[in-house]
Amino acid sequence: MGCHHEEDLHWAQGCKAVLSEVWHDAHDGWEGSSKPYKVIERCLCPQYIRPNPAHRDAHGPSLPLRMAAEYDENHPAHRVLTRLDQMIRGRQPADVDAATSLAGWLAILGRGDQSASSCVSGTLREETLRDFLPFHTQQQVDLTQPHAAEWARRLRSAARTAAVELLDKHESATEVYVDPETHAPVIRTNDADALWTTIPRRLPTTSPLAELVVGSLVWVRTESGTLHLAPDQEHQGYPWRRGSTDWPTRLATLVHLLLDDITAVPSQTRGSEVPQSLRLFAEQTWPPSWAFTRGQLEAIRDGGPVTP
To answer: Does the residue 2 lie in any domain?
Structure first.
């Protein structure tokens, strides 16, 4: 450990050793009342993803920059980590293309060491950094549903790596899997009929959309026959839930984008750009796990009838 504290004090976020605690009195500014608050000085262990500016010389560069030094400068992980360091420091880094970003993150997420786990958990905690991850939205998948069962059959057992931090920071998983099509981590906790996974921001395929399945979850089947959970729809990372108030906008946006580009990222498009005919389609109540072909969806977008 960089700070020489005991190992059990080091969590994914870094060392948790308290060096001192000082109590103060303060006025909250609302009712003029006085109340105590506590200032806690914690260990500045360099395992933290964000360096303390006041102690940068003593504790060196950020965790991502130290990890970047482990890779050749042309390696995708090096480019991802150096960009992450610039984002942490509030600078405007150069863009990294989608393919390089995905390859770099997959290299990081596939590592089993503490540095990689700390880097991923630290990125998740920072709202301004989360969208840089290729996965974010957590989703529970009910295996009693037919499309979920089809998806689950392709999963492969996997070791616990940094990718599992996206789902299981408290280490409650009893089984760990990976989706070989998307490289998304999948875990089982205490429910035999459910799995948890994280949904890609974009689908890693060039095969066009062939079918959309609308139910409690939304599934996309491509012309290659591969079934995917619908890609991440919300900037905030909210999971797909049909009961949510913005369901029509989210579903209409998804259909509109994926008909034209299967690799589109829904959260990067404003709902106002979606045709009204798709909004009307999304507002309908459909039978459970109702499937729509590409031809049907294109006809609806062009103003055709919206009927179950």
So the answer is: no
Residue 77 has which token pair? 């992980």
What does the alpha-carbon distance between residue 239 and residue 197 come to, in Å, rounded to a whole number?
A: 11
Q: Are 205 and 103 in contact (CB under 8 A)?
A: no
Summarize pLDDT for 170-196 with one digit per residue, the tens. 788 999 999 999 999 999 998 889 999
What is the domain range of residue 285? 201-308
Distances (CA, A) of 193 to 56, 157, 228: 48, 17, 19
61, part of any domain: yes
Distance, in Å, from the CA atom of 280 to the CA atom of 291, rounded to the nearest integer, reads 17
Residues 194 and 214 in one domain: no
- Structure confidence at residue 34 (pLDDT): 38
Is the predicted pLDDT of residue 164 greater than 90, yes or no?
yes
Distance CA 42, CA 9 (A): 11
**CB burial class (10 A; 0-12, 13-18, 19+) of residue 263?**
middle
Residues 308 and 294: their CA atoms lie apart, in Å, by: 15
- 95 and 47 in a common domain: yes
Give the other-Cβ count within 10 Å of 51's Cβ.
Answer: 22
- Assigned token pair, 56: 């940068």
Instruction: Tell me: do 123 and 21 sit in the same domain.
Output: yes
CA distance 80 to 78: 5
Q: Is residue 191 part of a domain?
A: yes
Q: Does the pLDDT value for residue 77 go beyond 80?
A: yes
300 φ, ψ to 5°? -65, -45
